[in-house]
Amino acid sequence: MLHEKLNSVTEHACRSCGGTRLETFLDLGATPLVDRLLADGDIDKPELIFPLRVAFCRDCSLAQITETVSPNILFADDYPYYSSFSPALLEHSRENAIDLIARRNLGPESLVIELASNDGYLLKNYVEAGIKALGIDPADGPAAVAERIGVQTRCTFFTRDLAETLRAEGAVADVIHANNVLAHVADTNGFVAGIARLLKEDGVAVIEVPYVVPLIEHCEFDTIYHEHLCYFSVTALDRLFRRHSLYLNEIKPLSIHGGSLRLYVELRERVGAAVKDRLAHETALGIDTIDYFRNFSARVDVLKRELLALLRRLKSEGSSIAAYGAAAKGATLINTIGIGRDLIDFVVDRNVHKQGKYMPGQRLPIRSTESLVEAQPDYVLLLAWNFADEILDQQADYHARGGKFIIPVPVPRIL
Ligand code: JHZ
Ligand code: ZN
Fold first, then answer.
1. Which pLDDT band, with edges at 50, 70 and 90, does 73 fall under?
2. N or C: which end of the chain has fewer CB within 10 A?
3. Cis amide prior to 87 (ω within 30 degrees)
4. Does Transferase count among this protein's keywords (predicted)?
5. How many whole angstroms from 39 Cα to the centroid of ligand 2?
């Protein structure tokens, strides 16, 4: 049934170029919103579910989902994602700030703006160095935490209009950070135009996005959900920025979030070797054709089947199974595969804002990480597989006592 819909041309317009030649290459069915965790009182209520399909634009080659859920539903009240719960992410962010302070000679006269500044996890490094910093984030919980630690934050969405307002107030940025947000905004062009408007003439926008190549190659289909509207290649990004007289001059591959890119975007064109090489590499891969994406759906189906079969086998042998990480991607994984309470007893997560709630859809209860050693389940499905090294180190006790981890992607395996 699923495959009938594949490669069908949809009537949507491309989020980047506006073209209408979109071809769907993956259909994950209808899923709930991954960061809408349920409280006790929500358990008997129905949840919103939306179709989750990914399409390729034949005109600008951007991979994108076809459904747009209102950002007010996705990000505003009760948004449970707080960046500061991962020490690896904090370290990654600190190094980024220190590098830019040195490379750009930033000082007290400089201004750094972050779009989607969350709980201040990145900007606090600039504040500590005496550099002016302004965060912009629509999620009130994380924004309040940022203010508390001294990071000035406007609790709102970043748009082209907000860029105009800030510009009128005299704000122009030496550095604009935008990590894991470009793929989240429905008005992709407005967001990029806003960046162009807020940059100083010699300023730089430093943007991190998950990279579509590892997503496809390592079968990271669980990173697909309604918050992620776009799945970027350098080819698609280069076209997007040029439309706004911005130039993708430098890139740096990052291992974070299953494989990301840090993009250095400026008003002046001086495209470096890394970008040129990557564009050539993507052309060689065929990323500007649907062929590159064509067999992804079948590979995802194999992974889903294998993981479900593994969990069912372990359960039928009498093993107990829990999960680690009430991650957004975990919600896609359990809901698209159908991993429910019959297989998983509970999920643990360090984030106190998630504990005591339930994963959307399958409604697995979320507990603190201490529950792992207390309950000592035989297996733990690692939903936050992108932090595997960090989490395995941290859970050395559980492992030493005979507990085993199941890593779901790229191929389900037991550690
Ligand atoms: P994590 C996030 O997705 C948020 P998620 C967002 N959707 C996005 O765009 C991507 O990143 C890129 C917990 N944890 O960060 C914290 C521990 O409990 O991989 C998180 O709940 N102990 C905006 O949610 C979850 O796991 C730990 O030691 O898929 C990880 O979620 C660590 C390291 C994490 O991404
Ligand atoms: Zn397009």
1. confident
2. N
3. no
4. yes
5. 39
pLDDT tens digits for range 252-265: 999 999 999 999 99
**Ligand 2 center to 57 CA (angstroms):** 5
The whole-chain average pLDDT of the chain stands at 95
Q: Indicate if ligand 1 lies below 6 Å from the C-beta of 159.
A: no
Q: Which residue spans of the chain are classified as CATH 3.40.50.720?
A: 296-414
CB of 185 within 6 A of ligand 1: the answer is no
Q: From the CA of 37, which ligand is nearest?
A: 1
What confidence tier does 72 reach under pLDDT thresholds 50, 70, 90? confident
Q: What is the pLDDT of residues 306-325, one digit of tens each?
A: 999 999 999 999 999 999 99
Q: Stretch 164-188: mean pLDDT, rounded? A: 97
Contact, 390 vs 86, CB < 8 A? yes
- Nearest CA residue ID for atom 12, ligand 1: 180
Residue 367 Cβ contacting ligand 1 at under 6 Å? no
Rounded percentage of the chain residues whose pLDDT exceeds 70: 97
User: Where in the chain are all domains bearing CATH 3.40.50.150?
Assistant: 83-270
Contacts within 8 Å (CB) and 24+ apart, 94-102? 94/125, 96/122, 96/177, 96/206, 96/262, 97/122, 97/125, 97/126, 97/129, 98/125, 100/175, 100/204, 100/206, 101/126, 101/129, 101/131
Rounded to whole angstroms, the Cα distance separating 411 from 315 reads 19
Considering the four listed CATH numbers 3.40.605.10, 3.40.50.10170, 1.10.10.10, 3.40.50.720, the one that applies to the domain covering 296-414 is: 3.40.50.720
Q: Which of 85, 359, 367, 372 has the most ligand 1 atoms within 8 A of CB, as the residue to mutate?
A: 85
Residue nearest to atom 19 of ligand 1 (CA): 384
Q: Specify the length of the chain in residues.
A: 415
- The protein residue whose alpha carbon is closest to atom 1 in ligand 1 is 327
- Output the pLDDT for position 62: 98
